Amino acid sequence: MSLAYSHQDGIAEIHFDDGKANVMSTRWFRELEALLDRAEKEQPHAVLFRGRAGMFSAGLDMKWVPTLTPPEGRELVEAFSGAMLRVWSLPIPTVAAVTGHAVAGGCVLASACDVRFALDGPYRVHMNEVLVGLAIPTWAAVICESAFPSQKLGELLLLARPFSPKELHALGVVQELAASEEDLLAKARTSARALAALRRDPYALSKARLRGPAVERAKQALAAETPTRPPA
């Protein structure tokens, strides 16, 4: 299994490492949902998401996607959107430690977190759907809109422009850059511990009020958005 869960000192960490590109699949999203169930049951102060050095996630496994039947493709779309919208609306503060490339689904997952820290280096954060012949689904656009400044959304979602960690830091998408993986995890964990100061119930209610209407709107749009193959 490429996803692992730990809970220490009030911080839950979800670590994904398949030794390669940390690709996502229907099974991956089901495993993620199960770990989110566990986090909601244990009620940590924050949930931290991290990949492996050099790779946060390259998104869907695009070698596997074309092999899916139409029902399997629809199941993937529902699992993908459901898991990402759940992270975005999780009633627990979330932190992303962007350890490397975050492409398509990897970019969405990082965007779905409340705060982001990134390892500095020659890698990209990239919504590449239109480059590979896919339209951006509404649910993914809604999540990315919450993390990126409005003046850059066209470049991100329509022009498929890749962004470097330094650019994201300058734009405020990433709170801090780190020179090493060790430094990155230290910064992300420090931020996660600081989130313990937030009162749990007011935070959860505020997040539901802030994002709940957009989640419902995205779910309604999903019913009408039936791509010939799932989004990357």
Which stretches are poorly predicted, pLDDT < 50 over at least 5 residues?
228-232
Number of DSSP helices? 8
What is the assigned CATH homologous superfamily?
2-enoyl-CoA Hydratase, Chain A, domain 1
CATH C-level name: Alpha Beta
> What name is given to the CATH topology?
2-enoyl-CoA Hydratase, Chain A, domain 1
Major beta sheet, strand line-up: 1-2-3-5-7-9
Give descriptors for this structure.
three-stranded parallel sheet; 45% helix; alpha/beta; single chain; 232 residues; six-stranded mixed sheet; 2-enoyl-CoA Hydratase, Chain A, domain 1
Set out the fold topology.
Layout: E1 3-8, E2 11-16, H1 26-42, E3 46-50, E4 54-57, H2 70-88, E5 94-98, E6 100-103, H3 105-112, E7 115-119, E8 125-126, H4 138-145, H5 153-158, H6 165-171, E9 176-178, H7 181-194, H8 200-224
Parallel strand pairs: 2-3, 3-5, 4-6, 5-7, 6-8, 7-9
Antiparallel strand pairs: 1-2
Helix pairs in contact: 1-2, 2-3, 2-8, 3-4
Overview of the structural elements:
This protein has a six-stranded mixed beta sheet, sandwiched between helices. The chain starts with a strand and ends in an 8-residue tail after the last helix. It is globular and about 45 Å long. The longest helix is centred in the last third of the chain and has 25 residues, at 200-224. It has one domain (3-196): 2-enoyl-CoA Hydratase, Chain A, domain 1, CATH 3.90.226. The protein has helices spanning 26-42, 70-88, 105-112, 138-145, 153-158, 165-171, 181-194, 200-224, and strands at residues 3-8, 11-16, 46-50, 54-57, 94-98, 100-103, 115-119, 125-126, 176-178. Helix 1 (26-42) runs parallel beside helix 2 (70-88). It contains eight helices and nine strands. It has 232 residues and is α/β, with parallel strands linked by helices.
